[in-house]
Amino acid sequence: MTDISQPYHPSPSAGRPDDRHADTTDFGFRDVPLREKKSLVRNVFDSVASKYDIMNDVMSLGIHRAWKKIFVNELGPHPDLSLLDLAGGTGDISFGWLRGGGGPAILSDINVSMLTVGRNRALERGLVSGLNFLAVDAEAIPLADNSVDRVSIAFGLRNCTDKLQVLREARRILRPGGRFLCLEFSRVQVAAFAPVYDAWSFHVLPRMGAAIAGDRESYQYLAESIRMFPDQETLADMMREAGLERVSYQNLSGGIAAIHSGWKI
Ligand SMILES: C[S@@+](CC[C@H](N)C(=O)[O-])C[C@H]1O[C@@H](n2cnc3c(N)ncnc32)[C@H](O)[C@@H]1O
Questions:
Q1: Residue 215 lies in a domain
Q2: In the chain, N or C terminus with fewer CB closer than 10 Å?
Q3: Which Pfam families does UniProt cross-reference here (predicted)?
Q4: Confidence class of residue 8 from pLDDT cuts 50, 70 and 90?
Q5: How many domains does the chain have?
Q6: In the 3-class helix/strand/coil scheme, how is 45-89 assigned residue by residue?
Q7: Helix 112-124 and helix 37-48: axis angle, to 10°?
């Protein structure tokens, strides 16, 4: 069990690109057999799917909406451009893209419970034209090379087992001149803010998860998985390793989250 009363000190492997030869990986602060991570993550999102959107608003005090707006603007929706939204869950990014005037979008996710919520939300909002749904593992995308203009992944990469493979797949399916964008929690840049953020993450979030979603463990995993995710520079290096070019990032809310961008030249 993790002692959350102690300051967080990343383990030597925290934030490093996945070791493809290792037979264990992180699931929050736990080390689990590599092959088990996907089903553990699936259980988390099966459990939270119906409360996912309300929990996002409560946990982030609504700030995730502003981050996603900036992210969608960065994607630059245009009728002539297509989007594959990886780990798209309940659809916020795909919906933002379509509302912004973007071309055909595929809302994809490995988890059918999350996609089902997304499909129902799309129907409620009348967002059906130009939107397709695909149940897919971001590590093995069933699309042709050079077939889409934009690939997005928002708060999804953290949950994938082999993150480098996701980045390689994203690059493979992008058309030359296409752009990959990742929105993810990152490393807080303001040291004075870290204790408050830690207290919020490890004390408040799991309690909110228990009270609102009846699921403390999933929100404990959420807080832990954020700390285990590569920091800004490490993720930028992984994107370069995957073959993306002109890699850059911008911090949001002092580094609580970051948007990483890379191009296929
Ligand atoms: C925190 S949610 C993000 C949903 C949405 N993008 C958003 O920003 O609200 C993370 C999503 O990643 C999905 N996911 C986890 N592992 C995945 C994988 N290997 N391939 C595709 N999706 C995955 C989960 O099912 C979940 O819907």
A1: yes
A2: N
A3: Ubie_methyltran
A4: very low
A5: 1
A6: HHHHHHHHHHHHHHHHCCHHHHHHHHHHHHHCCCCCCCEEEECCC
A7: 30
CATH of the domain at 230: 3.40.50.150
CB of residue 149 inside a 6 A radius of ligand 1: no
One-letter identity of residue 192: A
Question: Between helices 37-48 and 216-228, what is the axis angle to 10°?
Answer: 130
Cα(192) to centroid(ligand 1), Å: 31
Report which protein residue has its CA nearest ligand 1's atom 27.
Answer: 89
- Tell whether 14 is covered by a domain: no
Residue 88 alpha carbon, nearest atom of ligand 1: 6
Q: Is 257 in the pocket of ligand 1 (CB under 6 A)?
A: no
Query: Is 249 domain-assigned?
Result: yes
- Residue 154 Cβ inside 6 Å of ligand 1? The answer reads yes
Q: Complex ipTM, two decimals?
A: 0.99
- Whole domain around residue 53: which residue ranges? 26-263
Residue with tokens 């994203």: 170
The answer to whether 243 touches 171, Cβ cutoff 8 Å, is: yes
Residue 6: inside a domain:
no
Q: What is the pLDDT of residues 189-223, one digit of tens each?
A: 999 998 999 999 999 999 999 998 899 999 999 99
Tens-place pLDDT, residues 127-156: 989 999 999 999 999 999 999 999 999 999
Residues 199 and 63 sit within 8 Å (Cβ to Cβ):
no
d(CA 91, CA 94): 5
